[in-house]
Amino acid sequence: MEVNALLPWRYTFRGIALMMTGSAFACVMTAQQHSPAGQNLKAKTATYLSPTTESYLKLADETEVMLRKDVLEVWFPRTVDNQNGGFRSNFARDWTPLPGRDGKFSVFQGRMTWVASQAAVRRPELKEQFLPIAKHGLEYLNDAMWDKQYGGFYWGVSDEGKISSFYTDGKHLYGMSFCLYGLAAAYQATNDPKALELAQRAFHWMDEHAHDRKNGGYFEWLTREGKPVPAHPETGRIALLPVAMFPIGYKSMNTHIHLLEAYAQLYQVWKDDLLRQRLEELLAIIRDKICVEPGAMNLYFTARWEPIPDHDSYGHDVEAAYLMLETEDLLGQGHDPRTERMAKMLVDHALAYGWDGNLGGFYQDGTTYGKAERRLKEWWVQVEGLNALLLMHEKAGARNDTYFKAYQREWRFIKDYQVDSVYRGLYEMIGEDGKPTIPNKGLIWKAAYHDGRAFLNVSERLRQLARTP
User: Which residues, including other chains, have CB under 8 Å from residue 80's CB and lie 6 or more apart?
Assistant: First the structure.
């Protein structure tokens, strides 16, 4: 989840605008749905592949090409900072490095370490190229991001690895989750015990200082020493987190779904009992408190998990559907029917209310029962949509072609509009006219993580489907 989708947003109560009858895709495939006023842009005639071995392999090959050309080859090795360590984040449309004062952000550093590590592990032919980059990321997380005095990962540091006024000396569980995520993946790639040891220390630090033993989940914004910073609701105002603008003193959907993701990555290499307990706790909180019928997620909560009114973020909905099911696969106890039901509702609701029936693709957000309000299309939402739609197709099988058709529409949108065919890579944001609104390719919130993860997963899942009788 990205910061743009979580900025404070007005809350508007609306009546039910659509009746959820029949397949969610019945309204999705209507070209008139959500057509921008005054827009003459027409979608290309839609033709769909049948779910056959040949179709799966064709799409898998296309995805693998995009993974190499539009993620791995453009981000690496140019982002590697051999002077100050870690990874550079700011790049123009043509991938020219841009000057910036953002320093090194915990989220970006953890994500880039994860991507390099996964490329080394999951693409053996690339191991020689990406293993040194994974080690480079590991060294930076250990040497610069980890607070040697009080423990925990800084929210961010200067380019020189020092405490920065831009980030302050505080620590946020969202940033810490991605540092832990990168460390667990780095251990998979390098087998360096330092990576696992630091990941374990980070987990215990987070659990000791931030776990809410009364209500479950985690307090999110902590002082350097590890003390949760409380909210002050009596003032009628909400203080906002530096850089990300999360509400201080409250719990968020975004932090908790990525804690789930990070802990799941760590559990792959460390079968610790407490870690498993926290994974199960996070899964239940996300499914039963954060997610609600008819398939939306509240974004912010009090410490007691009382929801605070806000908008519905379609990208987080489809991302959470995938992450919940992925976690249950890892825990190895089969899928809880409650989890499967909620995951399906999240995807169906996003298709019913957040989908562009003209060009394809998911909009940013809107109210739970109304039309999408922010109708830009962000790169991470589209690639997370691929992940979720293909997983739903796998579960639905031949009895329902809803998700495979939507998957193909999403894939065509990414190819036709989200990818820069001249300089490669994915644009951050596409407007309603199909043109990029932000030309730059890199910034602290836009790493190789969402598209890299999605293309790795989708390519592998398509080949798995091709092998399934």
Answer: 87, 88, 133, 136
